[in-house]
Amino acid sequence: MALAPLQVDVWRGREDGGFQRFEVPRQPSQTVLDVVTYIQRHLDTALSYRFACRVGMCGSCAMMVNGRPRWTCRTHVDKVSEGGLVQLAPLANFPVVKDLVADMREFFDKWARAGGQFVPGATRQDAFAVVDPASAKRREADAGIECIGCGVCYAACDVVAWKPDYLGPAALNRAWTLENDVRDQGGSGRRAAVASDAGCHACHTLMSCTEHCPKHLSPTRAIAGLKRATWRIALGDEE
Amino acid sequence: MTRLEARLWLAQRATALVLAVCVMVHLATILYAVRSGLSAEAILGRTRGQWGWAIFYGAFVLAASVHGAIGLRTIAREWLGWRHGSGVAATLLCVALALLGWRAVAAVVMS
User: pTM of the predicted model, to two decimals?
Assistant: First the structure.
């Protein structure tokens, strides 16, 4: 028996846009990204959206699906449709470029502001660093290193919504992985950056980031680690 | 700014630790004290001239004042957008809470 077609409400335009209803044929194992692609290829070629890898690696296809931020390439329609209806909108807490495309500039600028760049201490003449994968610091770094930069945590974070200059879970998670990278030399500067007014202390441990992260990372844990790491600043041992 | 935020966070954590102990002792004292009825005489009889209680509740008041004022500063900044006035308002509130609390402690210990 053929499945009943799916009703899809898709955000069109910029912030002042609205939802447009499409009817999309159902397929077994259909993902939300499949649905968006069908609309763009068969129903309205002017629909704008972003994707690249389709296999949960690149982090470019995240959208709000029925009000929750999700990676659409790994989200099955079966799991999220409510009575045969799916609502798609651009990621919350991001400016809208057009339709389902969010403006990621501020999000990634915050990674830079949180000291997200690796600061090397060795030269090409030095030997390779030997890092024990079982060491406590490396395990802490590994726990957060698989971030794909999709922006789901940032869209889910209530503190970002209340305090727009808050660096956000992804940028702070990145800072925490570098804090635990024994090769990195950016420690004190990075700790000062994340201890700013808009940094780790703004987090209220609501855990929405951890709840929504498609890679099952815990930015909450990373932020808690950064708060502990900034004790030295509080005690005046570090600027 | 960086050092201030880190210090306020540390102060709030430290006072939370103090409050956790103080609240437990306070609740246990209430449960114990009401066994013989709750009257002003009974309370004052227990607290008058007791400098141990004065020090305990004095510390309790200080921890609550600091902890609460830091929390309200955060709420004012986040929900009211009070960036500059929030620090002064929180400091005044902290001082007011501490003075009122200590006055109450003095009233039951020194009366």
Answer: 0.88
